[in-house]
Amino acid sequence: MARIFITGANGMLGRSLVRVLEEDNQLLPTDLPGTDVTEIDSLISQVSDFGPEMVIHLASMTDVDRCEEDPESAFRINSLGTRNVALACAENDAVMVYISTGSIYNGKKETPYTEYDNPDPVNAYGRSKYFGEVYMRDILNRFYIFYTCWLFGGAGEDKKFIPKILELASNRDVLDVVDDKYGSPTYTNDLAREISGVIRTGYYGRYHCANSGFVNRYEEAVEILKIAGITGCSINPVSSDRFNLPAPRPRSEALANYNLSLMGRKPMRSWREALSEYIVTELA
Ligand SMILES: NC(=O)c1ccc[n+]([C@@H]2O[C@H](COP(=O)([O-])OP(=O)(O)OC[C@H]3O[C@@H](n4cnc5c(N)ncnc54)[C@H](OP(=O)(O)O)[C@@H]3O)[C@@H](O)[C@H]2O)c1
Questions:
Q1: How far apart, in whole angstroms, are the C-alpha atoms of residue 182 and residue 255?
Q2: Does the pLDDT at position 64 exceed 80?
Q3: Any idea which residues carry the catalytic annotation?
């Protein structure tokens, strides 16, 4: 039983993590508007009032295009907000858990990234997440960082790729989906269970944490329709040049859980198996 303060707890990953951790820990899940990680004095006093052994920091500006259009907010929330959480941990001698992203890499690698590849983010979101990590490392010496990728989960609250594809495919005969962006789709429930296991070990450090395997968005969309049994819509592979989005995306954010495997942990199941469980049990 540990006392754990959580920021950004109402988000996609937060909902899964709270469900997994609440059974045997004393949690204080927080989010906007009551807890804003950019308000340093209020944050430190809230954390100090609770007196946690651990702070799990999920709060983030996660919309990649909004980060590109408003980098000041991205750096204020994702970089300085993470510094603020690290300072609150230092004040309370608490271990920090930070969630980062495969978007810290430049995406040029042909095979999945490991923890031993160099960060080189190509957009404001990736830069703001990476510099949050740098602040945390400068301030604390007891922390875990989990890098993850293309999250899905949270059923009705999920507004991301999978429900979007399902909705569009129900209303159209043909869908254009990019086939030149790669990632490792990851189920929030699987990620939450793995995080919960690792943070009990005391083996602080940097961990890639994603479901096994990688895929491009076109292949993922084809799999989504197959699992959902939707046959009336065909998916057309297109280049990402077709969509004029504000933020450049790395070609690949695919992750290998290299450190977890070196430590002998059981591999996380494949993204296909996890996706199938999500669609069948939560979205059907
Ligand atoms: N989703 C992905 O595919 C993905 C991939 C890799 C890494 N990650 C990382 O995983 C973590 C959790 O992601 P998620 O998908 O669960 O994100 P999410 O659903 O967007 O949740 C983030 C939460 O943080 C809150 N928040 C935003 N600004 C805040 C602030 N200034 N102070 C306190 N809370 C604030 C958000 O509130 P509002 O909704 O009101 O803004 C939201 O409830 C993030 O660190 C993210 O960078 C996510």
A1: 10
A2: yes
A3: 125
